[in-house]
Amino acid sequence: MTRVSEDYHSEVAIIGGGVAGRSAGIFTARHGLETVVLSAGSLLLRRNAHLENYPGFPAGVNSRLLLDLMRDQAERFGCKFHDAEVTRLEPIENGFSIETASGDSRSAEYVIAATKNATGYVDGIDGVTIVERGEEFVETDDRGRTGVDGLYAAGRLAAKPHQTIIAAGHGAEVAVTLLEEHGGGFFHDWVAPEGYFTGRGIDVPPGVEEIDEEERRRRERESMKTMREYFAETHPDEPERHPNVR
Ligand SMILES: Cc1cc2nc3c(=O)[nH]c(=O)nc-3n(C[C@H](O)[C@H](O)[C@H](O)COP(=O)(O)OP(=O)(O)OC[C@H]3O[C@@H](n4cnc5c(N)ncnc54)[C@H](O)[C@@H]3O)c2cc1C
């Protein structure tokens, strides 16, 4: 029997909680859309030994720490994470129904699929094209849209190059596409200094926040304190092995 979980509906469901999914969740949750990430299985980046090509870390960064940072950042904006394997997605009126391996049923208005090369749950949906190139990918346009309104694919699943920054960037791009379609116009998630727009007599654009100098300094101090805590100790987790390595 299908069970309906307590919080069964969200505006956005992101399937796959890797780099692409976490990045997308930061953007949709920051803009106030109720967002849930449904993910099962290990994260590919947990196998990396030391991540040396993600911009912003001159000496590289522990990839497991980066994953923690991205999840905590998404959660800070209200994004929820659930351990759930999605077995079936179906377009319904005003969104999608989402079945999981545990028998739960959920729904969402928008879905971002970010499951690397796992496509079984979208197989056969009218408007979704699966491309076979050694591995399976979901065909999208240049903004991550599939052929189904409200259904997007992000990261490696959308055949993006196999790099962390690209998966993260694409997750963000797809989320911004969704936000523009939801809001009906262009959208920049920016934080600007006070007066940047209003000082020129321009309304603050959708998605943009202006903050004054006191608030800017407060945020800077908080970020410095927070990052000192994250980087105070080495990460406890070892890199995960490839499943075929004994
Ligand atoms: C050993 C190794 C080292 C690497 N080193 C680097 C490096 O140095 N630099 C670099 O840029 N990149 C590196 N990468 C590549 C990088 O890890 C990937 O490109 C990136 O993590 C892809 O992100 P993604 O979000 O698209 O997919 P993933 O991180 O794979 O996330 C997809 C998630 O979806 C889950 N999922 C699948 N099916 C379902 C389902 N039905 N329901 C729910 N969840 C599901 C998966 O289990 C997974 O957790 C490395 C990869 C490996 C393996």
Describe this structure in words.
- The protein is of the alpha/beta class and 246 residues long.
- It has 2 domains: 10-183, FAD/NAD(P)-binding domain (3-Layer(bba) Sandwich), CATH 3.50.50.60; 190-230.
- Helices cover 26% and strands 26% of the residues.
- The strands form 3 sheets. Strands 1, 2, 3, 4, 5, 6 and 9 form a 7-stranded mixed β-sheet that branches. Strands 7-8 form a two-stranded antiparallel ribbon.
- Helix 1 packs parallel to helix 2 and helix 1 (19-30) runs parallel beside helix 3.
- The mean pLDDT is 95.
- Residues 15-21, 38-41, 43-45, 47-48, 51, 53, 85-86, 114-116, 118, 121, 155-156, 162-165, 167 line the site of flavin-adenine dinucleotide (FAD).
- Flavin-adenine dinucleotide binds next to helix 1, strand 2 and helix 3.
Topology, element by element:
Layout: E1 3-15, H1 19-30, E2 35-39, H2 63-76, E3 80-83, E4 86-92, E5 95-100, E6 104-113, E7 130-133, E8 135-138, E9 151-153, H3 164-183, E10 190-193, E11 208-211, H4 213-230
Parallel strand pairs: 1-2, 1-6, 2-3, 6-9, 10-11
Antiparallel strand pairs: 4-5, 5-6, 7-8
The structure holds flavin-adenine dinucleotide.
Residues 15-21, 38-41, 43-45, 47-48, 51, 53, 85-86, 114-116, 118, 121, 155-156, 162-165, 167 line the site of flavin-adenine dinucleotide.
